[in-house]
């Protein structure tokens, strides 16, 4: 019997045009996706697509499944949403959690835009789930989470919104400020100033220093971006921040330097529960569009 997961896999393949991209969209490994396709082909006793075809080409049976997926999946989603909805829930706030402290700067205009477009709806930006936002999302305590670190959880769907560059923020009079870019070795033993996040979870450590076997110096934390920037300006250490963060450094003697010759780039995902994916909920869909536009504008303005 053909299952909904098979239809979602086929549709992802049609939308992305490759096994690797379809696996990323479904947030499974490529081998797991291939296994699903082989299982489906066994059940229908036919091939779904032509192997090694560029661009990817579906068989007649595959096209039939794509058509079925495009017809059935939206109806299933709409029915689930309808069954879950009640009069009291119609105007319940859309609850957003984030694990990026510096996102607040451009999230507030997003909330204002949303309110202008949907005056009868409400967005709640909840900061109390900083370290367990994805768990709160799965438990229906949040409706959408902004994160750079997706997890392999079949209950959640991760929608890629944009890419942003993480830079090293340093005092203008420091030796590091004179570099076109810094290497991991140049930061060995350097004091790291950050938001109250474990050192091992910082992008600077996880994706730049640790892979090179470099150990940073002590960590100092603070909750507010302005305070963090002021401490760097006072020579207390350095920080890694999204490129847009320096817009808050007006009047401070700070600059940013690339991490590595090619820079350190991180993705921005919107995470939702699979029963409320963007195409199934117009409010979530619009919020995601506004966020994607805001992050792109923030990066461009850097």
UniProtKB/TrEMBL annotation:
Residues 2-59 form the HTH lysR-type domain. Keywords: Amino-acid biosynthesis, Cytoplasm, DNA-binding, Methionine biosynthesis, Transcription, Transcription regulation. This is HTH-type transcriptional regulator MetR. It comes from the Bacteria. InterPro entries: LysR_HTH_N, LysR_subst-bd, MetR_PBP2, WH-like_DNA-bd_sf, WH_DNA-bd_sf. Belongs to the LysR transcriptional regulatory family. Its main location: cytoplasm. It holds the Pfam family LysR_substrate. It is found in: Cytoplasm.
């Amino acid at each position: 019997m053909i299952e909904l997961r098979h239809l979602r896999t086929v549709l992802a393949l049609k939308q992305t045009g490759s096994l690797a991209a379809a696996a990323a969209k479904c947030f499974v490994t490529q081998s797991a996706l291939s296994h699903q396709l082989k299982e489906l082909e066994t059940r229908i006793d036919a091939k779904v697509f032509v192997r090694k075809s560029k661009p990817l080409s579906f068989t007649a049976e595959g096209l039939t499944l794509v058509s079925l997926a495009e017809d059935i999946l939206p109806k299933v989603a709409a029915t689930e949403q309808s069954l879950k909805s009640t009069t009291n829930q119609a105007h319940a706030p859309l609850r957003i959690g984030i694990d990026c402290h510096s996102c607040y700067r451009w999230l507030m205009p997003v909330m204002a835009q949303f309110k202008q477009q949907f005056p009868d709806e409400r967005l709640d930006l909840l900061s109390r789930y900083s370290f367990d936002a994805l768990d709160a999302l799965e438990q229906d305590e949040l409706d959408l989470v902004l994160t750079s670190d997706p997890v392999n959880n079949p209950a959640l769907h991760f929608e890629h919104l944009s890419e942003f560059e993480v830079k090293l923020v340093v005092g203008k009079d420091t030796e590091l400020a004179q570099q076109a870019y810094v290497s991991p070795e140049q930061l060995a033993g350097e004091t790291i100033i950050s938001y109250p996040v474990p050192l091992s979870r910082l992008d600077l450590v996880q994706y730049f220093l640790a892979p090179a076997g470099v150990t940073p110096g002590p960590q100092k934390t603070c909750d507010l971006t302005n305070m963090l920037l002021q401490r760097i300006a006072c020579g207390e250490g350095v920080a890694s921040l999204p490129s847009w963060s320096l817009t808050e450094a007006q009047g401070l003697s700070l600059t940013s330097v690339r991490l590595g010759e090619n820079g350190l780039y991180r993705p921005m995902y919107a995470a939702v529960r699979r029963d409320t994916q963007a195409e199934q909920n117009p409010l979530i869909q619009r919020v995601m569009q506004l966020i994607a536009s805001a992050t792109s504008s923030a990066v461009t303005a850097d």
